Amino acid sequence: MTTIDDAFVAQLQDLMKHPYHRVIAGEPVEGYLAEVPELPGCITAGRTPEEALSNLEAAMAVWLESALVHDDPIPEPVNRPCPSQCLTTAPVDRPCHRGRIN
After folding, report:
1. pLDDT tens, 40-75?
2. Within 10 A of 3 (CB to CB), how many other CB atoms are there?
């Protein structure tokens, strides 16, 4: 069994602060899909945009934790213009993020 030490937790918390794009698309009737395009396969859903974003944060943590445990490469965030549905919890100062979920 692997023990998670303080350094591992700190590294994971640091990675979660990176300005990865969190993209949410959908509608109230069908629900919302959320993904982080830079992290392949990191996708989830929710009934509301807020629920999808919350679920995405949890999915990101699991994705990044798995990559660290297995020594898989972790892509850097891509600096590109955000689509109109881009929502983020990361503290980034981009015009497309101002006034969005933070």
Report:
1. 999 999 999 999 999 999 999 999 999 999 999 999
2. 5
Task: Enter the tokens of residue 90.
Answer: 């990361």
pTM of the model: 0.74
In a domain, 77, yes or no: yes
Domain around 79? 6-87
Q: What is the CATH number of the domain that holds 69?
A: 3.30.160.250
CA distance 88 to 93: 11
Residue type, 29: V
Nearest to 80 by CA among 61, 56, 96: 96
Amino acid letter, 12: L
